[in-house]
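forwarding from the other thread:

> can someone predict this with zinc ion?

sure thing
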Amino acid sequence: MRTYTSLLFTLLLSLGLVACSPSKNNQTIDLTKAKWLDLSHSYNESTLYWPNNVKGFEHTEEFKGQTPGNFFYSSYTISTPEHGGTHLDAPIHFAEKGWTVDQVPLDSLTGYAVVINVSAKTQNNPDYLISPQDLIDWEKANGAIPKGSIVLFNTGYAKHYPKRKEYFGTDKKGLEAIPELHFPGISAQASNWLVENRLPKAVGIDTASIDYGQSKDFQTHRILLGNNISGFENLTNLDALPLTGAYIVALPMKIAGGSGGPLRIVAAVRQSD
Ligand SMILES: [Zn+2]
């Protein structure tokens, strides 16, 4: 027999107001009552790009002021490499047959998140590699990561953004900076563990790359993107999220054929979270 609650839930669901979770607790969020949190950095002259990018974010004024018609008008041109600031790595970034930005299904950019906090481990180790044990330990405390989750890693590095030296481990620019990059990332073993056991929709991190700074072969990119699991990089505000139950909406600029692009990513959480 159906209870009033389940009938109400069915009604809300049919109205599209309740986001359904695959989690064991069957957690749901009423999006009309949720608190929205911003997980994106703003784009400006301080936006961080990989050190060998020649250009950064450019926002040039075309017109700003009073027009001859006596009304105010402003308009700018933007220019940016795809991979900088808070951005999406579409699978084709490292997988020849992977989805381009415009092909990534909206379903894989929206859904419930789990947040794995490894910031204590990165404090004295900028080369920290997130391991399968970190995932197993998280699951011991919080339950299994539901299949199809958006897995977010909080390394504590967002607090360094946009200070280049602290964030990248070097303030050098150009190719000579690459060997000096030091920041945490996800190990190949942890990536394989996720693909084989939990198959997330997407994986995000609050550093410049899902691979750690010292990576030479970008195995984590190749493993995750090779399985059409997109990456979200340079996230912020992960401290504000509950470990489970936040509902993510991550919408990149819809660049046809793009390998990545600027990402506005937000999270809906319960008012009480
Ligand atoms: Zn990228």
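Residues 1-17, 20-25 have pLDDT under 50 and may be disordered. thats all i got for now
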